[in-house]
Design brief:
This protein is mainly alpha-helical. It has 16 helices and no strands. The radius of gyration is 20 Å and the shape is globular.
């Protein structure tokens, strides 16, 4: 059909082969930075307010990440069966309600439970949004869209901790979750008014456990798909070690104030904005696999810089600069990994997004308690980051070499 927009009157939900508005789509897909990075500067304050340990508060972060992972694994295959829009509607609504629960939490247990619900809800919208991109784009166009999403998402780690730090100067950490509740409500309104279904009825698979299991089994049978997922898991464990531990490293070990740590986190995250924009410009001229390998290698060098600075006792500035290299590298890793995984798993886009995002966030979330269990110091953070990101480089290079040999 010549018209790029198709409508099916037989569907209860209108189906259009066009992307939803890019900014709200990016915010829904990238809800995780808002739900994690905003309250990272407040982790020590939350521990004091709830009369609990830093480890218990870090568990609320881990709970969100694991729930975000499990939610994607559940929602992705379902979206291939029933469509994307219903999951986005449910996810944004429940996210708003769960955020209210976090704001009212009287103790650490309640906070963790509310964070689990928040993570499950956020996952439904995130995985459906990524699948929408695969529904209506392919090739370099898909890579550029994912690059655009990553560039917009990269603003989250800059804005979120700054907003969190600003909240702490005028109110308690609970207001942060009120802000997240408002965001969830705004997302819901956008989905209702502006988002149309992108998966036509004839492309939907069966619904139920057996159908979902078959879709997962088909994708996991693809060796290259497994390699991309493993690369993402390993590198994300390293990256999340930074996310969860850096506030304790800079505030407890190095004596930074909450405001100064917020500046550290935001300045590092701003590097990702720059590199995702670079990725969007160069993808197509260089292969996505090459850009992924480059990002992983640079990230590993940055992690080694953190480890070396900690071993030599060089102080906070070299650690800060090395972390900026890691976050900058992530601007290549994130969109390249998304694009390659969706390309290889094109037969079932929702399931591919679920496995890539779910396993990456779920197993990657192990990095949050791991570095803390090793002491929560710059040395522990650097050790976890360097070892896991180096392993990701090895997996990526071996898989790329094997794929070239098979051609």
């Amino acid at each position: 059909m010549a018209d790029v927009t198709t409508e099916r009157s037989t569907d209860r939900t209108m189906t259009r082969a066009v992307l939803p508005p890019i900014v709200p789509l990016a915010l829904i897909v990238g809800v995780s930075p808002f739900a994690t990075d905003m309250y990272i500067p407040a982790l020590p304050a939350i521990a004091r307010d709830l009369a609990t340990t830093p480890g218990a508060v870090q568990l609320s972060l881990t709970a969100f990440l694991v729930a975000f992972a499990v939610g994607q694994l559940l929602a992705g295959p379902v979206s291939d069966g029933i469509g994307r829009r219903p999951l986005m509607l449910a996810g944004t609504a429940v996210f708003a309600l769960a955020s209210v629960g976090c704001a009212l939490a009287p103790d650490a247990v309640t906070l963790v439970v509310a964070r689990v619900l928040q993570g499950l809800a956020g996952a439904a919208g995130a995985v459906a949004g990524r699948a929408m991109v695969s529904d209506v784009t392919d090739g370099p166009r898909m890579a550029k869209v994912f690059g655009t999403l990553a560039a917009i998402n990269a603003i989250g780690p800059v804005v979120a901790p700054l907003a969190g730090g600003a909240v702490l100067t005028v109110a308690s950490w609970r207001l942060m979750f009120v802000v997240l509740a408002v965001l969830g409500a705004v997302f819901f309104v956008f989905v209702v008014l502006r988002f149309h279904e992108t998966l036509p009825r004839e492309r939907r698979g069966g619904v139920g456990f057996a159908a979902n299991r078959d879709r997962i089994r088909q994708l996991l049978a693809i060796g290259r798909f497994r390699a991309y997922v493993l690369t993402g898991v390993l590198s994300t464990i390293g990256f999340f070690a930074y996310i969860a531990t850096s506030s304790f490293v800079f505030q407890t070990q190095y004596g930074f104030s909450e405001g100064l740590y917020t500046l550290v986190f935001a300045s590092n995250a701003s590097m990702m904005i720059v590199t995702t924009l670079v990725f969007r410009r160069v993808v197509g001229r260089w292969s996505e696999d090459g850009l992924l390998s480059f990002g992983l290698a640079i990230g590993t060098l940055g992690a080694l810089g953190v480890l070396t600075s900690a071993l030599l006792g060089l102080g906070p500035v070299p650690v800060w600069c090395s972390l900026a290299v890691v976050t900058g590298a992530w601007g290549f890793v994130l969109p390249a990994a998304m694009t390659r995984t969706q390309h290889v798993g094109a037969a079932h886009p929702g399931t591919a997004a679920a496995l890539q995002g779910g396993l990456t966030f779920g197993l990657g979330g192990l990095g949050t308690p791991l570095a803390g269990a090793l002491g929560g110091t710059a040395l522990a953070m650097g050790s976890v980051m360097a070892s896991l990101m180096a392993a990701a480089v090895v997996v990526q290079l071996l898989a790329t070499r094997r794929a070239s040999a098979d051609v």
